[in-house]
Design a protein that fits this description.
By secondary structure, the chain is an alpha/beta fold. It has helices spanning 18-30, 80-86; strands spanning 2-4, 14-16, 39-46, 52-59, 67-71, 74-78, 89-95, 100-105, 111-112, 119-120.
């Protein structure tokens, strides 16, 4: 299943800001991965004091059952079991005085732990 962020009538699993795409693409290229095929995998895993946490890694290619979101030249892969937890989320990149990194804004979250590392839907 594939979705696009640049128009069309299909529903997006996640939206990706331009800043997040630029940062991820730079990292993919530094790993010498082909950005036409490889992408950023966004997933949900068990863990943390609230029950679930986000994970991200680079993959050479999507799995057969992944949803593929394409935005600003970046391909984001989401597996079916993670999709139900992150549908409608926004992936952003924040660069602040104390920290820099990717951030997931998830409208499905009912509660987060105090440190913000885990969540519950």
């Amino acid at each position: 299943m594939s979705t696009t962020a640049d128009g069309g009538a299909e529903t997006r699993t996640v939206t990706v800001t331009e800043d997040a795409a630029e940062q991820a693409l730079a990292l993919l290229e530094s790993e010498e991965l082909d950005t036409d095929v490889a992408g950023l995998r966004l997933f949900v895993q068990q863990g943390g004091c609230a029950g679930l946490s986000y994970g991200m890694r680079f993959d050479d290619a999507p799995e057969d059952d992944d949803t593929i979101v394409e935005a600003h030249g970046l391909r984001v892969f989401v597996d079916p079991s993670s999709e139900k937890y992150i549908a409608g989320s926004k992936l952003d990149y924040e660069n602040g005085l104390q920290a820099a990194g990717f951030n997931v804004e998830n409208p499905n979250v009912e509660a987060e732990c105090g440190c913000g590392e885990s969540f519950r839907t």
